[in-house]
Amino acid sequence: xxxxxxxxxxxxxxxxxxxxxxxxxxxxxxxxxxxxxxxxxxxxxxxxxxxxxxxxxxxxx
Length: 61
What we know:
Number of strands: 0
Shape: elongated
Structural class: mainly alpha
């Protein structure tokens, strides 16, 4: 898994995430920031899929 291999237009870079986290008192490496971004994107995608599935079943009723 490599963040830079993904389509990353409009997405927060690991470097930007690292700076944002440092501002909040969390010191992480760029690699750790990359993993955090991957995890957050995964959670967001799961939530979106569940939301769409829920709306499809609601429309049928």
